[in-house]
Design brief:
single chain; alpha/beta; Rossmann fold; 6-stranded mixed beta sheet; 9 helices
Length: 231
């Protein structure tokens, strides 16, 4: 059962503070929007949660464990850029995921690939940017994981595909999982969010339920976001 606890998490790159004493508790059964402009620390936070970066201070616990080998068994991560071998085709990449992850559900992956009209024999290097993003998402969401970390999953695709991706996210995670979606395209994902975290200059400036925001302010999450991050 997924539970994420983040305490006083700080990450510095030289003189730059990317995360500044971040504290969050995220429970299972939620789709959480990690929202903020570029440079707010969203990708850094996801990378630390996935064990790709080490904190300068503070801690992250996933099911009580530090990010590492054990958490990778339950965490499915979609990076903000392609991290898969370009020479492989869709079928080979499904084979790769099946070898690496015991929770990979191949039949689920095959269905998503067919729904999106992807060619299983086409190598990634011949795919468009949008097609690569679709394929990566299919592979990630085909895992029966406990934590999904999705960095800009709808950034480079058309509106119709965005709708399919959001339906895929909703229908392919279980009630014991937590899904974290990092994005600045709030209006496109607001309808699926349970919880909202606003990151600004590496700090959490808001953490509330999406419905609570709408009830208290009479505004959409997107409108509140635009007010908080107005230039």
């Amino acid at each position: 059962m997924a539970r994420i606890e983040i305490n006083h998490l700080t990450k510095q790159f030289g003189s730059l503070t990317a995360l500044d004493s971040v504290a969050l508790q995220l429970e299972k059964g939620q789709i959480v929007g990690l929202l903020g402009p570029n440079g707010s620390g969203k990708t850094t936070l996801l990378k630390i949660m996935n064990g790709l970066l080490t904190p300068t201070a503070g801690s992250v616990k996933i099911n009580g464990m530090d990010p590492g080998v054990e958490t990778k068994k339950v965490v499915a991560y979609l990076p903000d850029r392609n991290a898969l071998p370009d020479y492989m085709n869709t079928k080979q990449l499904m084979d790769l995921y099946e070898d690496f992850f015991v929770d990979f559900n191949r039949s689920k992956a095959v269905k998503m690939v067919k729904d999106l009209g992807l060619d299983i024999n086409q190598p990634m290097k011949k795919m468009s940017k949008g097609t690569k993003e679709k394929l990566q998402l299919c592979l990630v969401m085909a895992r029966d994981a406990q934590v999904y970390l999705l960095d800009e999953p709808i950034g480079g695709v058309d509106p119709a595909t965005r709708d399919y991706i959001l339906r895929t996210i909703i229908s392919n995670y279980n009630e014991d999982a937590v899904v974290i979606i990092s994005t600045h395209l709030i209006s496109d994902i607001e309808s699926v969010l349970d919880d909202v975290v606003f990151l600004k200059e590496g700090r959490v400036v808001l953490h509330k339920q999406a419905e609570e925001i709408r009830e208290e302010t009479g505004e959409s999450v997107d409108k509140l976001f635009r007010e908080v991050f107005r230039c």
